[in-house]
Amino acid sequence: MDEEKKSKKLSTENSGDIARILIDLMKTIKVVSVYPESNPIPVRMKESFKERFTDIIKEYKKLVFTISAGQIIYGGDVVYDDDSSEDALGEIFHSAGITEISFSEDFDYKEAETFFGAIKSYINKEPGAEDLVALFWQAEIDGFKYATLEDIALREYEGDFLIQESCVDKDAIIKPGSYDDSGKIQYSAIFLDDDEEDDEGMMHEDNHEADNFSAIAGLPVMENLPAGFMPSRKRSSSVSSESAGKGSPLPDTTLILNESFTLEKEELQRVRELIDEDEKFDIFTDTIDLLNEMLYQESEFQDFSEVVVLAEKIQSEFIRQSNLVDAGKIIDCLQEAGKRIKTPDKRFQERINSAIVMSGGWEKLSQFSDALNKDSSIKSEDVIAYLSHFGWESLSTVTDLLGVLEFRHHREAICDFLVQHGREHVDIISKGIFDRRWFVVRNTAAVLARIGTGETAPYLEKAITHPDARVRYQVAVGLCREEGSENINLFFELVWDNDERVRQTAINAILELSGEVGLKTIIKIINDDRFASLAESIQEQMILSLSDLGGEYAVNYLVSLISGRGWFRSQVKDFYQRVAFKALAQNMSEKAEKALLKYNRSWRRRLRRMAGEALRIRREIKYSS
Amino acid sequence: MEKTCKEDKRIDIAGKDEITFINSFFILFRTAQYVEANNATYQTQSSRFYVSFRRLVDVHGKITVKVIDGRIFVHDKLVKFDSEGMVRARVVIDALHQVGVGGVTFDDSLDNRQIDKFVYLINSLDRQNSNREEVANRLTQLGIAGITLLAVEKKEKRSVLTEEKRKFMRRAARVTFFRAISLVEDSMTRAAHDKEIDISKARRVVHSLIDQISEDECSLIELTNIRDFDEYTYAHCANVCVYSLTIGLKLGLDRQRLSDLGFAALFHDIGKIRLPEDLIRKPDVFDENDWIQMQRHPILGAKTILRNLQFSRQAARAATVAFEHHINKDYTGYPSMIIPRPTNLFSKIVSIADTFDALNSGRVYIKKPIPPDEVLRKMMYQMGIKFDDFLMKLFINIIGIYPPGTMVLLTGDKLAVVNKTNKNKLSRPVVRVIGDKSGPYSKYIEYDLSSPENSSKKIIRIIDPSKFNIDVKNIILSDR
Predict the structure, then answer these.
(1) Contact A61 B7 (CB under 8 A)
(2) Per-window interface: B 330-389 vs A, CB < 8 A
(3) What is the pLDDT of residue B151?
(4) Is A100 at the interface with chain B, CB within 8 A?
(5) What is the predicted pLDDT for the residue at B3?
(6) For residue A133, what are the CA distances in angstroms to A28, A98, A145, B53, B349?
């Protein structure tokens, strides 16, 4: 076999080994990223992979791969090719901007563990988490190196550097164009440097420009320094190389070396305190503090407005990260800034107001609804607390949210908010009744029903005629949650609904009513022509309730049920008689007793029996209570 | 990155006999953890092990088992395990490693009983308080001469910094440093045109700086002495970043925080791009109006960062540092806060680095440089009032009195540039002598002034190279 073929065969063998190990790597990554750490499956897979991979590394010493879209290339051969999904091995690196990876002999078991940890964090990352390159860098894996697109981009900068180097004449340490181009160091000038004659040399202690040092960080002027810190100029300039070794005053720099400036062990403990303190940095809270300070700083309108724009941008970002609490704090921050304004220029306050109103506008609330739909863990109280920052101007947009929110508890929170804040603005929130989407109508109807004022009645009347029973049902449920006489008429209408659930809800609500309102409503229902079309059980409940509420006033009606309806028996007549006697038995009025006693003497045996039974029940009720 | 191919020399893989031997040893070891030596199960395993032992030792005379980098070699042949075998092996490896044993040699004089004693000895050890020598003594006491314990072979992670390596590091430092300056320039230009700053690029540069400082901080610190840039603002930002990261590393900040610190330091003065260019380039000392304008750069910096960067932890920290880095410990400075509160750790670090570089360079605010030792003295006077005293001390201990890149005059009429500080002797750094009265040397000579043979050499004073037209940049960039 000639050399070329041998080399190709060898190359194919090599590639085969590498390809297999990459497939193993991909499988291991998939398993590791899905299963929890403690699960034995990823533990076994990692152990097995690590052993095989470190074998390969020991053989090859170093493995270098080029990454392109979906492909991993080794030694000119494509050893991995899968662009089918973003979870494919090549795509994981490629999407992170990594163009080359290499493994060396340092890549041992421990490093492999760290490597998998970094990739797992990247694959399962949360919003705002580090990218893969940053994770690898933080992991500090000695045996694994990588190059990125940024490294390629950064090489563009090296042009300048190369120019600098190429221009450097390394043999010349005297600047060109200096007063002496002899190439010799003017040692005598250095040695005999006289500060007093030099106006352009170094800073001196008594130069007035020392005061400018103070201005750099608001430092005070350097007055009344201890003598040790303000050496005389003469002393510094008179030091010569000979005298330095002959017991002359020490250079000032030795003052730095006194003990007060060396770190003591106790001070090193301070490191922990500083780091612990720094851990309290919160990206949200500290940014809000910063915005607060910045709003305070600006006295020019344009600068102030710029900060407000930034506050709006940051607020959007907080919402996007599902942090409604801190997003609300930014609005508080703007409001506080508004209160602090001292300038007579009204534009400042107007700008603040505009920002707050815009926060409750469609664009911001769209971001808000997107965040809610991505994160079901956002609490209802946080939703309500955030929306409470806005005025009536936002009610319309908030109402629209009912049509886009996916999670029930978020919709309920919106409803609660609208009930609390929409009582004075029914005309705004009621627009949802006219929406063509049934769920919007439903949710709006639920809100209006709970508000239950006279203003809501026309809209609810429209809602109870909605073709979708779910809407009508929601009206019934909503009406049940809030008391109000305006609701009674709506309940009356819902009693005749063709959906049983709606009907029953309305009837249950009516049966819960008491006093005159309840009595009148039941009378109205009973007097309605459609009463007989109701289920017997409902009719029975109504009649019993009538008796209960009406007392003696109901007795005449009950008697009419017994005596009326013709001579001949019928199932209907029997039903009404039975119910009437039952009602009389529970009616504790004297008139009811008299009626029963009269029927107890009736020549009709059936009536006599039923009356007797009713009287017996009556006595039981009377004497047992 | 270069590509490589398979090496000719392969590792030998253990054969069946070796695998049987080592597996049975591990099984024996594990069995001994649960039962006594007279237990039937143990006896069976012991017999099996001895058979496999004899099969090997009769051929080779002795059997050496070594653990290197967590992998097991029998007679220098790698034993490959399945995952179960690996778990078993790991128990034994860990037990041996805990007492400092990295391998065992069994010779053919061993009998069954001696092996049993050895196995039970290892199992019974107080591993926290035992070492290899003690175990060896116990073996001797037990009359087991046929077992030799080998030390753990430690892997050298970092090589010693040879001269060649140092030169390489210095070159790498230059690349990283100039990249940082270019990145700052590019980012500030983009910010000035309201374009988004490339945070990924910036992160890579900061990571490179951190890696460089971790390996050899002095190679970067000396570059901070180059003052020949037209736009010194950008170099100043890079310098502050280098100083800040050095402090951060000394504090032991984790990598994520170091990355945030470096990023914040790199862009701490980004607000200056919104100031008039004439003001930044003004050669004369600032007047009062100039200062009023200049004092706006912190808030302008915070605004620029928040506007031109996607909001993230790094951006939030950088904006805070940009805003706070001129606020002093006693709440003086600028801008004045509505609610005075302690500034962030990063702001304190950058404040120190910023002030040091500004005064040392003489290019940022004051127009004439102050020698570093004098700067440090001025700053130390303000310790506890303007600067955090602990951080200030830490900085001094890093920078030393003679920071790398400082030009100094030595006794014996020699001119030198400080190469590296000596932590334990700040006044006696490592210097490169570049010349004397007769002229510059063709090859610089390095002296470690802290070593006894150089005790006669002393630094007389610091030299301002610009005063004598000495091009310090050439010296720093040179590999002579």
Answers:
(1) yes
(2) 332-335, 337-339, 341, 344-346, 351, 355, 358-359, 362, 365-371, 373-374, 376-378, 380-382, 386
(3) 84
(4) yes
(5) 31
(6) 20, 7, 10, 49, 26
Q: DSSP string spanning A175-222? A: PTTSS-TTSS--HHHHHT--GGG-SSSS--TTSTTHHHHHHHTTPPP-
> Quick check: B38 contacting A, CB < 8 Å?
no
Min Cα–Cα distance to chain B from A417, Å: 30
Packed helices A408-421 and A438-451: angle between N→C axes, nearest 10 degrees:
40
> What DSSP line would sit under A98-142, residue for residue?
EEEEEEETT--HHHHHHHHHHHHHHHTPPTTPPPHHHHHHHHT-T
Q: For A375-430, what is each residue's pLDDT tens digit?
A: 999 999 999 999 999 988 889 889 888 888 999 999 999 999 999 998 889 998 88
Token digits of residue B411: 């006794």
In a mutagenesis test of the B interface, which of A216, A234, A318 is the best target, namely the one with the most B β-carbons within 10 Å?
A216
Q: Is residue B230 very low, low, confident or very high in pLDDT (cuts 50, 70, 90)?
A: low
Cβ contact B469–A160 (<8 Å):
no
What's the whole-number mean pLDDT along residues A354-373? 92
* DSSP secondary structure letters along A510-539: HHH--HHHHHHHHHHHHHSGGGGGS-HHHH
**Domain residue spans in chain B?**
2-151, 163-399, 407-476
Taken in order A414, A415, A421, A425, the sign of the CA dihedral is positive
A 223-242: CB under 8 A from B:
225, 229, 236, 239-241
What is the rounded (10 degree) CA torsion for B9, B11, B17, B23?
A: 180
Number of A to B CB contacts under 8 A, please give it: 342
Choose among B285, B332, B427: nearest Cβ to A218.
B332
Contact call for A278 and B373, based on CB within 8 A: no
- C-alpha–C-alpha distance, residues B42 and B31, integer Å: 6
- pLDDT tens, B324-370? 999 999 888 999 888 888 999 999 999 999 999 998 887 666 667 78
Band of residue A114 on the pLDDT scale cut at 50, 70, 90: confident
Q: What is the mean pLDDT of chain B?
A: 84
Alpha carbon of B33: minimum distance to chain A alpha carbons (Å): 23
**Cis bond before residue B440 (omega within 30° of 0):** no
Question: What spatial distance separates the first Cα and last Cα of chain B, rounded to whole Å?
Answer: 27
Asked whether A547 and A614 are in contact (CB, 8 A), the reply is no
In CATH terms, the superfamily for domain B163-399 is Hypothetical protein af1432 (1.10.3210.10)
Structure tokens at B266: 């790199």
Best to test chain A binding among B2, B5, B158, B363 (most A CBs inside 10 Å):
B5
In sequence order, which ranges of B193-226 are alpha helices (DSSP H)?
199-221
**Record: contact B475-A173, CB cut-off 8 A:** yes
Give me the half-sphere count of Cα atoms (radius 13 Å) on the Cβ side of residue A138: 21
Could you tell me which of A589, A47, A262 has the C-alpha nearest to residue B427?
Answer: A262
Residues 315-334 of A with CB under 8 A from B: 317
pLDDT at residue A224 in the model: 35
Tell me the one-letter amino acid at A14: N
Separation CA B171–CA B223 (nearest Å): 11
Confidence of residue B157 (pLDDT cuts 50, 70, 90): very low
Nearest chain A residue to B301, by CA: A294
pTM of the model: 0.72
Query: Is any Cβ of chain B less than 8 angstroms from the Cβ of A261?
Result: yes
Residue burial B391-424, b: 16+ Cβ < 10 Å; e: rest: bbbbbbbbbbbbbbbbbbbbeebbbbbbbbbbee
The residue of chain A with its CA nearest to that of B342 is: A277
Residue of A nearest to B292 (CA): A215
Single-letter amino acid code for the residue at A344 = P
